[in-house]
């Protein structure tokens, strides 16, 4: 693994565990096994390192959605949507990425908050494009009831945000039961 990648991997874990303010470049260097000045060969400062990680994590979510919808393209809308929700729910259970994502989506460091919002909004537009196609296909197939697309998208995000939060409160079995219940009610509100 290249030093740049090691730095990002180490910083991801430290930012997730100790927060942005609680993580220093010296800690990142020590955990990576390099001297602090070597970080500057790869990133001009801590904010740039953080943003590189945030962009990678956000892109990972979009890639996961791309993959889920591509692999399920021949299935009925109900199955595609359930697989998509389950795929997104597994993302948040990834050891450091899930904690990092939720923490900094809700509470971005002040000095990078504007950049975090831009990255997040750009990726949300990419996700919305996928949800648009899924919604249109479901409507055309007669699988989804008549409701505004904006409501469908808003409900999807609310469900995912709720599941992301639930992940931090419950063990895997309890989380699975809660996901099942939330999914059943969510689909009941969409089904034609």
From TrEMBL:
<dbReference type="GO" id="GO:0003700">
    <property type="term" value="F:DNA-binding transcription factor activity"/>
</dbReference>
<feature type="DNA-binding region" description="H-T-H motif">
    <location>
        <begin position="24"/>
        <end position="43"/>
    </location>
</feature>
<keyword id="KW-0238">DNA-binding</keyword>
<feature type="domain" description="HTH tetR-type">
    <location>
        <begin position="1"/>
        <end position="61"/>
    </location>
</feature>
<dbReference type="Pfam" id="PF00440">
    <property type="entry name" value="TetR_N"/>
</dbReference>
<protein>
    <recommendedName>
        <fullName>HTH tetR-type domain-containing protein</fullName>
    </recommendedName>
</protein>
<keyword id="KW-0804">Transcription</keyword>
<dbReference type="InterPro" id="IPR001647">
    <property type="entry name" value="HTH_TetR"/>
</dbReference>
<keyword id="KW-0805">Transcription regulation</keyword>
<dbReference type="InterPro" id="IPR050109">
    <property type="entry name" value="HTH-type_TetR-like_transc_reg"/>
</dbReference>
<dbReference type="InterPro" id="IPR009057">
    <property type="entry name" value="Homeodomain-like_sf"/>
</dbReference>
<dbReference type="GO" id="GO:0000976">
    <property type="term" value="F:transcription cis-regulatory region binding"/>
</dbReference>
<dbReference type="InterPro" id="IPR036271">
    <property type="entry name" value="Tet_transcr_reg_TetR-rel_C_sf"/>
</dbReference>
């Amino acid at each position: 693994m290249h030093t740049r990648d090691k730095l990002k991997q180490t910083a991801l874990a430290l930012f997730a565990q100790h927060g942005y303010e609680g993580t220093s470049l010296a800690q990142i260097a020590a955990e990576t096994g390099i001297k602090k000045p070597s970080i500057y060969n790869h990133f001009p400062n801590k904010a740039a390192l953080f943003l590189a990680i945030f962009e990678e994590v956000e892109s990972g979510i979009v890639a996961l959605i791309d993959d889920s919808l591509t692999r399920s393209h021949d299935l009925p809308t109900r199955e595609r949507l359930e697989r998509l929700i389950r795929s997104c729910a597994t993302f948040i259970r990834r050891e450091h990425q899930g904690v990092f994502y939720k923490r900094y989506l809700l509470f971005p460091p002040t000095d990078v908050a504007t950049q975090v919002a831009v990255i997040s909004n750009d990726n949300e537009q990419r996700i919305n494009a996928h949800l648009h196609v899924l919604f249109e296909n479901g409507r055309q197939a007669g699988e989804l009831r008549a409701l505004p697309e904006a409501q469908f998208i808003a409900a999807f995000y609310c469900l995912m945000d709720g599941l992301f939060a639930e992940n931090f409160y419950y063990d895997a079995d309890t989380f699975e039961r809660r996901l099942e219940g939330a999914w059943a009610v969510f689909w009941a509100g969409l089904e034609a």
